[in-house]
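Fold this: Exportin-2
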Amino acid sequence: MGEFKKYLTTNYPSLESSSDGLALVDEHRAAVCENISLYMEKNEEEFQGYLNEFASAVWSLLTIVSQSSSRDKLAVTAMKFLTTVSTSVHHALFATEGVLPQICQSIVIPNVRLRDEDEELFEMNYVEFIRRDMEGSDLDTRRRIACELLKGIATNYKKQVTDIVSVQIQNLLSSFATNPSSNWKDKDCAIYLVVSLATKKAGGASVSTDLVDVQSFFLSVIVPELQSQDVNVFPMLKAGSLKFFTMFRGLIQKPVAFQLFPDLVRFLGAESNVVHSYAASCIEKLLLVKDEGGKARYTSADITPFVPVLMNNLFNSLKFPESEENQYIMKCILRVLAASEISREIAGPCIVGLTSILNEVCKNPKNPIFNHYLFESVAILVRRACERDASLISAFESSLFPSLQTILATDVTEFLPYAFQLLAQLVELNKPPISPSYMQIFVLLLSPESWRRSSNVPALVRLLQAFLQKSPHELNQEGRLNQVLGIFNMLVSSAGTDEQGFYVLNTVIENLEYGVLTPYMSNIWNVLFIRLQNNRTVKFQKSLVIFMSLFLVKHGTQNLVDTMNAVQANIFLVILEQFWIPNLKLITGAIELKLTAVASTRLICETPVLLDAAAARVWGKMLDSIVTLLSQPEQDRVEEEPEMPDIAENVGYTATFVKLYNAGKKEDDPLTDVKDPKQFLVASLAKLSAVTPGRYPQIINESFDPANQTALLQLCTTYNCQIV
């Protein structure tokens, strides 16, 4: 400890006279600060005897460390040590009179003030500046650590810190007022202190501060900057003001904030990349503000009048140098399209602007976040505009088709999943018959070559589902059904894609007549039974139960039993007992639960083989499983088993599939006529038991779990049904 202290307090004039020598000494002292921070955290009891002199030495060191960026590491590690002390049981060191004002004046304020390096980063590398300033990756910068030190001290001395910093903020603002053009950094420092010391509520976006009254500070300090007619003067001050507005957006009253909306739109035209990015981010975050009850504060009626100018300015800001792929602007475009009414007048320029950008980024995709927001923007524009005006579909197709065909023709790997999802969205919006241009894509879709990349599979399945739903009759031509079932076979054979395989199969079963399916059913069951034999994962078994249920409700119980038994005599009962009954209780999802419960109910009430006295035990087990599914909460009946990934699929780098939220498939309910599966169960049982009174209560008593007997009795009482 004596050696450590010596290194912190001794001067080395012969070394410190040169920059290289000073860097060596600083590195040495920074290492000591890191060491004593560790002692403070890990060996507090043994270290406390040395604490006072070390705290004093570090403090003295900080007051003489210059603002040069070459000395940042020493300054940051020294402040981190004092922060650790301030939050420990030894915080009384900071209670001595005069200590807090001195720390604030000689350590915090000098380290929070903007330096030449900050201005250079602001101008030369706006992405890194925003990453540090807005997104919190500035953990090791002087500005951030100085504020963390204040927060640490405020843990035990909140009122004193608040009073001192409030006075400092007023002094800084007074200094600015005396000479705004020379002292603008003082105002920036004041704004930064308020923003950085604000308290965020856990799990929410709301913030608060005791340093200033937010409303009056906003009106007197921030609004004049936002209403400044020259958007390019003092850009760092403008950026700080926009950041304040963004952070405290929930506390600014709607009339005040709304009055500034035209100014935010104006700031999108600022030459500074940071300023127009912050303006876009502020608009985007404002549109997310919710009032009590979760209702959006800014409605489409509020925003729509601004949309033409707003969208024009957003698209223009993407033309500034280095902002061509600005993710903050594209995210704002997405949010505006989601929140406003999209008329034909707005939709036209927007689709032209978005496809123009899409054509450009296709040449060399660089920014995945920007690209994702771009495709989401296209998807939400198509969805919301066409919901309002179906005649826009053809205009969108004319604009989008060349871009999507370019992606497919030039094999832009990163964009293929997006392109397939957008095509699926367009197919679903069309009314049959599907145009020849789509049918060309359908042919491409059926080629095994298209399915080789695993990243394409979910999007291709989504597109295939869209085609199967819109033009099922096309499947019967030119051997296409064979090709589709070949794709199903390929997908279902692998644990990584089996769920996607079932999506294909379920869509085929749901949209084709039984007569068309009959010649293929033996082959389908063979594929499923082989997979069940070789690799029966929980996920696969659940998907199989859902498929069998869907087949039953679409094509009848007898067809289900007969097609299965045609593969192997009496295999239906084996599958029922070994796989359907045990896995039924694991089904999740509202539509899936209803489908499997109703299908299972129909099975025990309609199937001759199960109504036979010899099958009484299986009948009872099946009903017990249905009652478990319908009466127990999901968390009590489902134990999630981790699936073992298919190692072969994880080797090497591949582009990943990213789902477009706004091009998502609407989940269809195949049983719209059944409102309540519980009522359906007890009504079906009551009807069945009336035919052979006394038989089924006995089976229930012999097969049922006691808790399920009670649950079934409660269901019968609730729906006024009786099993006789």
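Residues 259 and 712 are 61 Å apart (CA to CA). The beta strands are 199-200, 207-208.
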